[in-house]
Structures are given as structure tokens and as C-alpha cells.
Specification:
alpha/beta; single chain; six-stranded mixed β-sheet; eight-stranded mixed β-sheet; 501 residues
Length: 501
């Protein structure tokens, strides 16, 4: 079987609190100089940088822009960028992404990075941003062209005027994001349900993780009929729910991550248009983000008990495919009136959430490319967030700001349940009108969370953005890994839940 998971990033990031010396700059193939539009200083005084910087400053003017000098046999090239004062983390990541985009044709092996700003916080943010963008840059998505693109040579990133940088954590987050992107971009004849589950088994063996795969026969005995309704249109019978577990000091999971893994979504009986089919191989990105976040947390929080549940299936069309108006009984006993076969994600997720929350994790987070309504509300710049604890809403916003992967919380008021009233069952799968479908989907999923379990649902409207987003230069963004680590670690989500933050 083709190797589906990317190799760990080999980029070596080093930080130095001092300014670069002439000798240090001479050993670099290329230099990034980043500075504010106002109060410009000259950190690269020595020739030939004085002339190059003056030229590039003139080329960029007062716009947030980028200019590159390719260098010579005796001096490295230089890419110059200016930024607005007091940039947010998202702005820093965006600048870093565009630096690497401007650099791409030169393909250097070693880059020196200088942020020319008096603020320690700004220099720190840019150091982190360039490192994150560098890790994403070196991980190209899988190419199926006969003529393979040139390998990216970048191996060393030396960041100057930066007293500290958590390179271990940055690398863990980058490996998680790279997994999320690479898996999501694979075509559906390469990453089908069977191959995906096999890749999870290989990963578990390599990383010494416990793995349980619930196949369709087992899921039938477990009453997971909502998940199986989606799977029954796939003639191969290869769908399954995967649970990966890393045991830590406690038996109760510190966090459980759940992901929607629909490897291709035809829409089912309510078949999509030709244009609507495009990109539907990425409908499993929720699962790849959950997996990438899980592996990042395994590296960053080595003593925690963690679980990752993946609902891996395909929404295909055949004579057995489920149809609107069917009434299906989910694993927790809830009866569901099917309204639309293209709202399959919440069907695959609801049984998976039931099983995951039954383990009583301290916190449960799920990820899914779930609704077009969320894209309509936010565009692809933010992802939507929903929490069954209102106290988490401010934390969700803060985690988005600190990570640069921005989220915005939506209401979870109980009166939205009126959208899900059914004449024949406990609940309808979705409102046929489509109004507020992102909120209705969250209220639907909420019914499958065990009592007492704090839960966050992330609707990945930012999972794909043309031209990339934040530090990621590919359309497939892998949004969510940095957000998750910041939510749990920087913003102390558990402490917020316990009233200690």
C-alpha cells in the first residue's frame, strides 16, 4: 500500500537572542527581513544589505508587500516584508506564509530570519509564525504527476533577535497540521475507508498506541444504525469507527478528539451537482484534524491520557443507500427521521460521539466539515465553534486569536431544538429549510453527548481556502491543530471549566 502519512518534518529551527553577525548571514542561503512600516531601523548594516534593503523598501513603499532579491555568489538573497504596527498572530502567520510564497522559486537550504521591531512580543510572534510557516512549506502535498516537483531543500531556519522559542511544541503542531493536510488532499481512490483504517493501524503500531477498530458487523451489534445508514451505500462494507488511545497517568481521558471521516461524499440519494462534487474527498478533514491534534498532544503532553475517535466511511450511492423519510434508531436509542442524505456527517458523528462521551472524558472536542451554512456565515477565514458550556465561548475566541486559527462561537440556546421537531421520531436529522443549519447540526449532535461531559463542536468552514490561510500556503489548510493546542494549553480550557481561570 502507498505510504499515506507524511514523514515527520525535518526542518531544524534555531533561535538566537542576538543580532546576526556578518559571518552568520554569510552562511545563510537567504535572509527574511521583516519590519514595521514606521520607525524603520537597519539591523543588516553591512554591505551589500544596506543597498539591497534600501532598494526593497523602495519597491514595497507603504503597502503590506513583499519584495525579493535573489542574491549573488558572494551574498545571500533577501526577501523583505513590512507589516502594520501591533500585528495579531493571524497577521504574523499570514506575513510568514507570503514570505515563503515569494521565496518558492529560489529553494534555499538555510534561511536567516530577522524581525526588526522593538517589541519583544512582536518579535516572538513573528519567530513562531515563520517557524510554523516553514514547517508547512517543507511538507508538500502528495503529487501524482509523472514529472515530480523539485524537493524542497529547506533544512535550517535560524531566527535572530529572539530570546526563546518552543521548537519542540512547534514541531509537534506542524507534524499534526501536515498529517491533517496531506490526508485530506489525497484523492478518494487512494484514501478510501479501508486504506484509511489500515493507515491508522500502521500508525498505532509505529507510535505504540492502543487501537480498536469497530467494523460494520460489530457496529450493527452495538446499535450504531445512524453511522451504518451512511455506510450502507458503500458496496465494499469497509467503513468503521476507530478509537486510538494513548494511556497516561489517569484512566479517564483528559481530552477525547472526534473527527468526521467521510472519505468521499456524493450526497447520497440527494446527489450533489457536478460542481458540488469537487473537493468532496476533503469531507474527511475533520478526522485528519482530530488525528493530527491527537498526535501533537501526545508529543506535547506526554503524561496525559488521550483518545481519538474517527468516524471513517463514505457516502456513496447504490441500491442500499439510505433515503429521506427513513426512521433510524441511533446507538443511544434516539430515533432520527432522515430528511436529506447529504446531511450524512451528523449521522456518522452522532453514534461516534455517543461512544466517545460514554468514556466520560474531561473534555470532548469534535471536528467536521459539516455545513455550508457555517461557510456562508463566516466565509473560509474562520471556523465555527459551539460549546455546551457557555463559559468556554470567550476561551474559544481567545484560543483562535492566540493560535492564529480563528474561531467564532455560535449560540446553543435550547429553543433552536424547534428546528429539529419531527412528527414521527424523536428528532429530524436536519431542518429541510436549511435555515441556521450549522446551529441545528450542533443542537442535533448535542443529544448524543453523555450527561456531564463538556463538549465543543468545531465546524471547519476554514478547512479549505483558496491561496491558503494563516501560515499554510496550500488550499487545504488543516485548520484546527494549532487552535486545539492553544485552547487546551495557552487558554487552559480545563481550568475554565473548573472555575480556576
Amino acid at each position: 500500500m502507498r505510504q499515506l502519512l507524511p514523514n515527520a518534518t525535518k526542518l531544524i529551527v534555531r533561535n538566537d537572542a542576538g543580532r546576526p553577525t556578518a559571518m552568520q548571514l554569510k552562511t545563510a542561503d537567504h535572509v527574511f527581513l521583516i519590519e514595521p512600516k514606521s520607525k524603520r531601523q537597519q539591523l543588516l548594516e553591512r554591505r551589500p544589505f544596506d543597498a539591497i534593503v534600501r532598494h526593497l523598501r523602495s519597491a514595497t513603499g507603504n503597502a503590506v508587500d513583499y519584495a525579493t532579491s535573489p542574491g549573488t555568489n558572494t551574498s545571500p538573497g533577501l526577501t523583505y516584508a513590512s507589516f502594520s504596527p501591533n500585528p495579531s498572530m493571524f497577521e504574523c502567520l499570514s506575513v510568514a506564509r507570503k514570505l515563503f510564497a515569494a521565496l518558492a522559486p529560489l529553494n534555499p537550504k538555510r534561511i536567516a530570519v530577522v524581525c526588526n521591531d522593538k517589541s519583544d512580543d512582536t518579535r516572538q510572534r513573528f519567530a513562531e509564525a515563520v517557524a510554523a510557516a516553514g514547517h508547512a512549506h517543507v511538507c508538500a502535498l502528495t503529487s501524482f504527476k509523472r514529472q515530480k516537483p523539485a524537493a524542497r531543500r529547506l533544512r535550517y531556519l535560524d531566527v535572530y533577535v529572539c530570546p526563546s522559542l518552543d521548537t519542540h511544541r512547534l514541531k509537534a503542531e506542524a507534524n499534526g497540521n501536515n498529517i491533517a493536510r496531506v490526508l485530506a488532499a489525497l484523492p478518494p481512490n487512494v484514501l478510501n475507508a479501508a486504506n484509511y483504517i489500515d493507515a491508522c493501524r500502521e500508525l498505532a503500531k509505529k507510535d505504540n498506541l492502543a487501537i480498536t477498530v469497530y467494523d460494520q458487523a460489530q457496529l450493527k451489534r452495538m446499535g450504531a444504525n445512524a453511522f451504518l445508514a451512511v455506510a450502507q451505500g458503500n458496496p465494499h462494507g469497509s467503513a468503521g469507527i476507530v478509537c486510538l488511545r494513548r494511556a497516561g497517568a489517569d484512566t479517564r481521558p483528559w481530552v477525547s478528539l472526534v473527527g468526521k471521516g467521510v472519505c468521499f461524499d456524493t450526497g447520497g440519494i440527494n446527489v450533489k451537482s457536478a460542481a458540488g462534487m469537487q473537493g468532496m474527498h476533503e469531507d474527511m478533514q475533520g478526522s485528519s484534524v482530530a488525528l493530527g491534534s491527537f498526535l501533537a498532544l501526545c508529543a506535547i503532553e506526554p503524561d496525559r491520557t488521550l483518545e481519538c475517535w474517527l468516524a471513517i466511511t463514505e457516502n456513496r450511492i447504490d441500491g442500499e443507500a439510505h433515503t429521506p423519510t427513513e426512521v433510524i434508531t441511533a446507538a443511544n436509542g434516539t430515533t432520527i427521521e432522515v430528511m436529506h442524505s447529504d446531511a450524512e456527517g451528523r449521522m456518522a458523528l452522532c453514534d461516534t460521539l455517543h461512544f466517545a462521551s460514554a468514556q466520560k472524558p474531561e473534555l470532548l472536542i469534535d471536528f467536521a466539515t459539516l455545513t455550508g451554512a457555517c461557510v456562508n456565515a463566516l466565509t473560509e477565514r474562520y471556523s465555527g465553534a459551539f460549546a455546551n458550556r457557555e463559559a468556554l465561548n470567550a476561551t474559544l475566541i481567545a484560543a483562535g486569536e492566540s493560535s492564529g486559527e480563528r474561531t467564532w462561537p455560535f449560540p446553543m440556546a435550547s429553543d433552536y431544538d424547534e428546528l429539529l421537531d419531527s412528527k414521527y421520531a424523536d428528532v429530524v436529522q436536519c431542518p429541510i429549510s436549511g435555515k441556521g443549519d450549522h446551529i441545528a447540526a450542533a443542537r442535533f449532535l448535542n443529544r448524543f453527548i453523555a450527561r456531564g461531559v463538556p463538549w465543543v463542536h468545531v465546524d471547519l468552514s476554514a478547512g479549505n481556502k483558496k491561496g491558503g490561510l494563516a501560515h499554510v500556503g496550500t488550499d487545504t489548510t488543516g485548520f484546527g491543530v494549532r487552535f486545539t493546542t492553544h485552547f487546551l494549553i495557552e487558554q487552559q480550557a480545563h481550568a475554565v471549566l473548573n472555575g480556576k481561570a
